[in-house]
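Q: I'm writing a short methods note and want an example of a predicted protein-small molecule complex. Could you take the sequence and the SMILES for S-adenosylmethionine and return the bound structure as tokens? Please keep the output block clean; save any remarks for afterwards.
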Amino acid sequence: MTGRHEAPGEQVPPGVDPEIPSAARAYDYLLGGGHNFAADRELAKKIQVVQPGVVRIAQQNRAFLRRAVLFMVEAGVRQFLDLGSGIPTVGNVHEIAQAAAPDARVVYVDYDPVAVAHSRLLLAHNDNADIVDADITRPHDVLDAGPARRLLDLDRPVGLLAVTIGHYIPPEADPAGLFARYRDALAPGSFLALTHLTDDFTAIRGEQIVNTMKSSRNNVFPRTREEVLKLFTGYGLVEPGLVTTSSWRPGKGVTSMQDTERDGLYAGVGRRL
Ligand SMILES: C[S@@+](CC[C@H](N)C(=O)[O-])C[C@H]1O[C@@H](n2cnc3c(N)ncnc32)[C@H](O)[C@@H]1O
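A: Understood, no commentary inside the block.
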């Protein structure tokens, strides 16, 4: 695969049709990564046309992920399940968590072959982190997989991460029911951190993003605040509640980055009741 300045002609892993762009690889490109194909870069560029602030949206999302993981580590969580973890990039969950708590364990889940292959390479020598190649809409496949059984103790609190993943779940897959199934598998005191695309704010052109993504493997379904709140059923939202990415506990000195109108993603952390 090639970086953004190199010519196409990349090696194609088994199971990948390089002509069909994927969310994982377009997102990797937007974050400056090199694990993407020409079709992914084309998709990312089309998204940039309809949503010029999309790189900022991705960066604020990653910054939220970092703050949410550190918040959970501080609350005592030592095991994480990262649904739709994507292609490894700067600031992966195991790097953030294990820097703060070396005994932290992390299970990643994704179904994109490039995301899975690169995660396996990165984690080959890390006994406390692994990836499950599974569809997150099938919780049993995730929770019964070897890495999850080996690394997660479901009798103790887990940090469940659903960061820019809920909007890939179509209405017919019943997102609220799916989140409830994960919640029911977790011990009280577990946390759910999520971000979710919305077009509640006029600066976000949800409909055009939806149409652009139709050429990819991953359709998107922006949701309203009320719909996103339903995903937190059975959790108590921690302060400041459901906000947008840059407004969720911004660190000192970064308040200038706060811009609810342009974040594009609702963000929140809830504690399982
Ligand atoms: C935009 S990336 C997000 C990566 C990371 N969570 C983050 O927020 O930085 C979304 C990821 O979800 C994965 N994904 C989408 N639907 C999925 C599903 N049903 N099962 C497993 N992974 C899925 C995609 O392959 C992609 O890697």
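A: Remarks, as requested: Confidence is low (pLDDT under 50) at residues 2-9. Residues 23-24, 27, 61-62, 65, 84-86, 109-112, 115, 135-137, 163-165, 168, 218 surround S-adenosylmethionine (CB under 6 Å).
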